[in-house]
Amino acid sequence: MGQLLNKTAIAILGAGAVGQLIYQQLRTDADAPLFITRESEQQQTVTFTALDGQVTESTATLLCAHSDPSLFEHIRLVIVCVKAYQVGDALKSVIDKLPKESHILLLHNGMGPHLEVAGQLRGQGLSLGTTSQAALKQGRWHIVQTGSGSTQLGPLTTPNMGRELKSRLLDAIPGSQWCEPILPSLWHKLAINAAINPLTAIHNCNNGALAQMQYRQQISGVVSELVSVAAADGVKLDESALINRVYEVISLTAANFSSMHQDIANKRKTEIESINGFVVQRAKQHELSAKLNQDLLLRVKEIESAYLI
Ligand code: PAF
């Protein structure tokens, strides 16, 4: 069994800030995950500035979709860390090379891709996760961890992730826990993102500004719609606890600019489709109203359309 977790057992698909952070947490002197990226196959120096300011450098192996199939043979876990809207295409480009006995873990903001991915798998099991750890890119291969936080991981479809891989993840990622079922944790995180991200992007403000009275009704309304949609999807959430949690996050991250605010400020595509867009999509499925989520979705898409081609 120990043989299973040899040098190439874990691969990280996508090398954004979260992908590189998970790489750093899983890396040991003897062993490190591979990256699968769109860049050419190579050895790459990666730099990490930890929360305490300590800087380390290491050499990572990068594979790409065109790499020799034999290089994928030992992979037993693929942690997918691309943006939600890239998950389907990213996985499609490598799924045929991944061993049937490998396991896929999706770790992105928002929800939705798991519905598409379930149909792409070739016998691999699927797990989902969410993290509130934060990191920023300082350069293509240099990240700075900017916040600690919790990480929830759990199974969606069988075959389940092997015990050894599961322990390796939980031991390496600080504040991580295994949750069965996992979907309530994802809805919970979705509610926080659905309430905070679009409002900060639309009103061009930091998270703390949302504590003002003028946003109160909208925040409660967005969460309330989401709770009804989640219930219709079979996930029961505690609405008032969730609204309290949104305000707790607003206060804990008061000085931060949300990821969606930063995407708009840098004229990047946002994750709105997999945040409020997912609520709207599931609401339609259940013939429920999600008007407030729909309004935020449309407004953010309107802002994006001014710069996206
Ligand atoms: O997406 C984000 O920016 C974060 O998840 C959160 C919690 C909204 C704080 O900024």
Quick synopsis:
By secondary structure, the protein is an alpha/beta fold.
Q: Which tags fit this structure?
A:
alpha/beta; 309 residues; 10 helices; Rossmann fold; disordered N terminus; 11-stranded mixed beta sheet; binds pantoate
Please specify the SSE layout and strand pairing.
Blueprint: E1 10-13, H1 17-26, E2 34-36, E3 42-49, E4 55-63, E5 77-80, H2 87-92, E6 103-107, H3 113-117, E7 125-131, E8 134-139, E9 142-147, E10 151-157, H4 163-172, E11 176-178, H5 183-202, H6 216-232, H7 239-252, H8 259-265, H9 276-285, H10 291-305
Parallel strand pairs: 1-2, 1-5, 2-4, 3-9, 5-6, 6-7, 10-11
Antiparallel strand pairs: 3-4, 7-10, 8-9
Helix pairs in contact: 5-6, 5-7, 5-8, 5-10, 6-7, 9-10
The protein binds pantoate.
Pantoate is lined by residues 109, 192-193, 196-197, 207, 249, 253, 256, 258-259.
